[in-house]
């Protein structure tokens, strides 16, 4: 309860990381807006942000930041949509096909995230174990990170995992040992399948996977409404 109260207070207390400094970091990092993004896609079509649901119709979306059911308790996205760069969504197709043979599928909590939202997250919770530092940007901002879990295709229910999404505790770490056998098995299965198709889990969050080669993609601040 104390942790929830602290997080709530952080969302309403003004912070010193103001809009001016956010804009400065954006310039320093050369964060691309819509016009620059579309020029990148023109030069290299593989950099296109592809809508996951259009490529994988069976995938389940639970876009938490389009609701108040997230750590900020605020709506951060105006649309409940999920995008990744084109090679990433193709790899996710392979993951989904692999899981289907086991009677399982993916549930997506978050994917591409505009840089401006990353700034808002940092304003709310300044713990870079769980939110990206705006001085560096996020792999989500590059369209190369996915937050997800496993579901049973027959029931549609999520498998038993170590924690819920966006849990800021040690139990959420990718190698936390003190779990039930089923939680350990489910977490390790997700790791294996994702790794087999080019994704790597981050140490602090069992649900967060980065795509190999993320360094080849620019940081973006393109709103969902501007993505064709």
Tell me about this structure:
The chain has 228 residues and is of the alpha+beta class. It has a single domain, classed as Muramoyl-pentapeptide Carboxypeptidase, domain 2, CATH 3.30.1380.10. The protein is 34% helix and 15% strand. Strands 2-4-5-7-6 form a five-stranded mixed β-sheet, with helices on one face. Strands 1-3 form a two-stranded antiparallel ribbon. A hairpin with a 2-residue loop joins strand 6 and strand 7. The protein starts with a helix and ends in a 17-residue tail after the last strand. The N terminus is likely disordered.
Strand order of the largest sheet: 2-4-5-7-6
| Number of helical elements | 7
**Percentage of residues in DSSP E strands:** 5-15%
| Helix-strand category | alpha+beta
Series of secondary-structure elements, N-terminal to C-terminal: HHHEHEEHEHEHEE
Q: How many domains would you count in the coordinates?
A: 1
Helix % is: 25-40%
> What kind of sheet is the major sheet?
5 strands, mixed
Low-confidence stretches: 1-17
CATH topology: Muramoyl-pentapeptide Carboxypeptidase, domain 2
Report the count of strand segments.
7
Provide the CATH architecture: 2-Layer Sandwich
- Distance between termini? 42 Å
Radius of gyration: 17 Å
């Amino acid at each position: 309860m104390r942790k929830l109260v602290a997080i709530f207070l952080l969302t309403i207390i003004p912070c010193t990381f103001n809009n001016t400094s956010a804009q400065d970091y954006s310039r320093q990092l050369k964060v691309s807006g819509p016009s620059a993004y579309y020029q990148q896609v023109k030069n290299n079509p593989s950099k296109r942000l592809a809508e996951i649901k259009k490529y994988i119709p069976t995938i389940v979306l639970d876009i938490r930041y389009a609701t108040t059911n997230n750590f900020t308790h605020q709506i951060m996205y105006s649309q409940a949509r999920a995008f990744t760069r084109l090679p990433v969504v193709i790899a996710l197709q392979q993951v989904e096909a692999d899981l289907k043979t086991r009677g399982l599928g993916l549930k997506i909590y978050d994917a591409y995230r505009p840089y401006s939202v990353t700034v808002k997250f940092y304003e709310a919770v300044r713990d870079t174990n769980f939110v990206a530092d705006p001085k560096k940007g996020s792999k989500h901002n590059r369209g190369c990170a996915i937050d997800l879990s496993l579901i049973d295709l027959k029931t549609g229910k999520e498998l038993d995992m170590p924690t819920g999404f966006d849990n800021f505790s040690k139990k959420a770490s990718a190698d936390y040992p003190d779990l039930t056998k089923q939680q350990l098995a489910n977490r390790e299965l997700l790791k294996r399948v994702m790794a087999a198709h080019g994704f790597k889990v981050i140490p602090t969050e069992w649900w967060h996977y980065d795509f190999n080669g993320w360094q080849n993609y620019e940081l973006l601040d393109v709103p969902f409404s501007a993505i064709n």
